[in-house]
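Hey all, quick one. A colleague (J.T.) asked me to put the ascorbic acid job into the tracker so the inputs and the structure tokens live in one place instead of scattered across chat threads. No bug as far as I know, just bookkeeping. Sequence used:
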Amino acid sequence: MYKTLLFAALAVAGTVHANPSAEARVKDFKVILRSFEPMGVVVRDRAPYRKDDFARLAANLKAAAPVPFTRFAAGSQAGSRAKAEIWSQPAKFGAEKKQFLDAVGRLDAAAQAGDLAAIRASYSQVGQSCKSCHDAFRGPPL
Ligand code: ASC
């Protein structure tokens, strides 16, 4: 039993390490979360809204948002949660990417303006765009 689990874990680890594009994009999506999550804490009223801090997070999110989309090299599906549809339906994947980047742009604009109502609306749109793309293009955990 333990041996089977050990070999399964090594097999998964080995596959991920054999796919540097996938590893890089997972890291890049985590960079996005380092801004998006603390913004969510403020939006959910679990931390105070401070305009300058929030605006900095939004600017960081805007800078980080396009990066993982440069990492979906052809042939980089193996050992990752990426679905084959990313490469077989590039127009649909591109539309999801655009939805996300547009919503991130609106969130940044609202944050720089200090418009909390617009922040709430656009934050929610960013979250919906994450979910929409994951539903279509991200498979279950490995
Ligand atoms: C997150 C996160 C996502 C999105 C998504 C929103 O914080 O990791 O994938 O928000 O859950 O619906």
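Adding what we noticed when we looked at it: The helical segments are 2-17, 20-43, 51-64, 85-88, 90-113, 116-137. The first helix runs from residue 2 to 17.
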